[in-house]
Write a structure and sequence with these properties.
98 residues, mainly alpha
């Protein structure tokens, strides 16, 4: 009889504890918050990768700037390509792709 009371007491305590845990879990919406945290972590990792890519691109552009500063022919080539400038007496032939 005593063993039966102990088992019954254990089952009642376990049921009450599970009820409190379930109520807390549902009330706090922990499942949805966990999903939001995981989504934020993915976004954070994407931003970190984007920053790394931008830093790499910045370094490449800084090297290109240094090359342009030190090489007169590269400067002229860049100006002609980007601005479409020509020297006096030159003729420009524009070819269109079909």
């Amino acid at each position: 009889m005593r063993r039966f009371k102990q088992i019954l007491y254990f089952i009642v305590v376990l049921t009450v504890a599970c009820s409190f845990a379930y109520t807390y879990f549902v009330h706090r919406d922990i499942a949805n918050r966990y999903k939001e945290v995981k989504k934020a972590e993915v976004q954070f990792q994407q931003l970190v990768q984007q920053i790394r890519d931008l830093v790499t691109q910045k370094n490449v552009l800084e090297k290109e700037i240094e090359r342009l500063k030190s090489d007169q022919l590269r400067q002229e080539e860049a100006v002609r390509k980007n601005k479409g400038w020509v020297n006096p007496g030159e003729k420009v032939l524009r070819l269109e792709e079909q």
